[in-house]
Amino acid sequence: MNFKINKKEIKIEFPNNSLIALLVGNHSINIIKLEKLIGVNINLFGNQFHISGKLENVNLAKSILTNVYNKLSNEKIENIKFEYSDFETELRMLNGKKKLDLPPRLKIDKIIELKFETWKKTIVPKSIGQKEYFEALNNYELVFGLGPAGTGKSYIAVAKGIDMLKKGLVDKIILTRPAVEAGERLGFLPGDMKEKIDPYLRPIYDALYEMMPADRVEKKIQSGEIEIAPLAFMRGRTFNNAYVIVDEAQNTTSVQMKMVLTRIGEGSRMVINGDLSQIDLPKGQLSGLKESEKILSKIREIKIISLKSNDVIRHPIVAKIIKAYDYFNKV
User: Fold this and answer.
1) Confidence of residue 23 (pLDDT cuts 50, 70, 90)
2) 8 Å CB contact between 154 and 245
3) Is 115-312+322-330 a CATH 3.30.420.40 domain?
């Protein structure tokens, strides 16, 4: 790769035309979106990108294109699944790196080395906040993941659990959440307990099926290697050699939170996830998650990760919606 830098124009040359075609997309759609995202002009001549605009924006576009190209070049062309969102991910990484003032020696490519292997896909962090969450899940036996919807709290926690189960590091995965109705009443629905509870646990099922073949999910549920149940069913148990995820923990009571935290047994890990802006408990009842954050924050063996709107990996408008609500609630 050769770089020729002018005051407001940078020329980047990449050798692999097949990778360039993936970056550009059909009818140059990816490049058009990237231009709008950053505020630059990008033109492709052969295997050379000409980027022009404000110097800071031009340098940012260069970093995004170069980092993404370098990551893709390490994979076989037939295995590459590149999407425009990969550009957005790289932008979040670069912005986050500036905000956190990371050491200069920490290259952005190092982030991609963090990964969880599942049966269907490899999960990697897509923001600086997610990178910290990955590291916490690797290094602590009890992790709290706090933050708004769309930041990947539950999804990444499930991926880590599957990774550990696949490698034989735990005997089972236990997925649980409090069965608190989020503004709706489901008690009138027909069916047995499992059928009534399943709607609350659907996001967990969705994550499992996205990372494992359906038949494998069913077999492991039947064998008990994967257990999905409401939090009330955890009372009186001890979790040994298990990976436990407590989802939607903002809806736990103080008693429930203390109960589940004291279930951790030998060889087990636990992840407590929740969004403190979406508490559905009856008015006046204290969230067990909110209380535990204060009580446990100084215990060194416990890691509390706070994900922000910048870590939202859904449609970009979701992050703006979350910021707008945060601002409204502070005013």
Assistant:
1) confident
2) yes
3) no
